[in-house]
Amino acid sequence: MSIQTAHCVAAVLTTYKPDAAFRSRIAELPKLAKVIVVDNTPGGHRFSSEDSDGLVILQDGCNKGLGKALNLGIKEARRLGCEQVILFDQDSTPSADFACALLDGLRKAGYKAAVGPKLIDDQELFSPRVESNGTATEVSYLATSGMAFNISCSISDKEFAEDLFLDFVDMDWCWRMRYQEGWKFYCLDSVLMPHRLGLAQRKLFGVTYHVPPPYRHYFQFRDTFRLTRRNYAPSRSRWRLRLILLPKLLVYPFILGNGAERVLWMARGIRDAILAVKGIGAADHKLQRNS
Questions:
Q1: Cα 125 off chain centre by
Q2: What is the C-alpha to C-alpha distance for residues 220 and 177, in angstroms, rounded to an integer?
Q3: What is the DSSP string of 159-221?
């Protein structure tokens, strides 16, 4: 990939209390792209001069949520003159070759399209395959981490949703762009990326359960109801998202640790869905602490 092409690409990463290995995981990205880090750490993460070298870091000391952080990163990418963007989370370890493969897939996919890697630890329960051509599979949505798309053709009112805060930001954006703007989304079958959902995994009766931290249930329950009321959400996905809440409510507290705390977060999520609470909501105390 030429230097001129590299200047047209931005890698946008969102961070929340990143660990000491964060900089080493993205060491190869500056070879290919302008690297923009949008930090959601309360009080602001203290990046050392070595860690911040070659990066554009946006900080305001607040946990803004995933959607707003992505919007800020993409806005900065446009300001820097970038034409394509690749999104990553802080746990991603993207090589330059990996990013090049994504961009090559994006070039083949077309202008109003987004591509992403095959997530080898993601069951893709709500991302049904539409059609495969042997190298790329059309899907209804992509996870934000590893997603690449052109930013010169997405307009301001098609930004990532900021009212969802964390969960379903990817589904909401992809469904809006797919059904309202005619975009297509492709999973690149030969481009693999490890993607662990939750803190760990457990199995019960042959079914794999991802173990999220208890507070995530708040966003899962609250924002399931918010997302599935939107007219662009596919009917099949609406019902699957709603129905999965019942086993989560009845089973998760007994097979995962901190059962009582999980039920409490679920109940808060249901309450705030009824009250139409947006953004960080009841998780403000949990996610805005400096420690």
A1: 16
A2: 22
A3: SPPSSS-STTHHHHHHHHHHHHH--EEEEEEEEEE----SSEEEEETTEEEEE--TTHHHHHH
Alpha-carbon gap, residue 69 to 250, rounded angstroms: 33
The number of CA neighbours under 13 Å toward the Cβ of 175 is 21
CA 215 to chain centroid: 17
The pLDDT tens digits for 247-267 are: 889 888 888 888 999 999 999
Alpha-carbon distances of 24 from 93, 121, 174, 270, 284, rounded to whole Å:
8, 22, 30, 40, 30
Q: Tell whether the model's pLDDT for residue 197 goes beyond 60.
A: no
Residue length, the chain? Answer: 291
Least confident of 33-37, 93-97, 266-270: 93-97
| Apex 123 CA angle, 270 and 250, nearest 5 | 35
Q: What's at 266, amino acid-wise?
A: M
| Contact (Cβ atoms closer than 8 angstroms) between residue 174 and residue 142 | yes
C-alpha torsion angle, residues 40, 117, 160, 23 (rounded to 10): 20
Mean of pLDDT values over 220-236: 95
The conformation of residue 282, written as its DSSP 8-state character, comes to G
Measured between alpha carbons, how far is residue 59 from residues 75, 166, 216 in Å?
A: 14, 18, 23
pLDDT of res. 157: 64
Q: Name the token pair of 170.
A: 């990817």
HSE-CB for 101 with a 13 A CA cutoff: 18
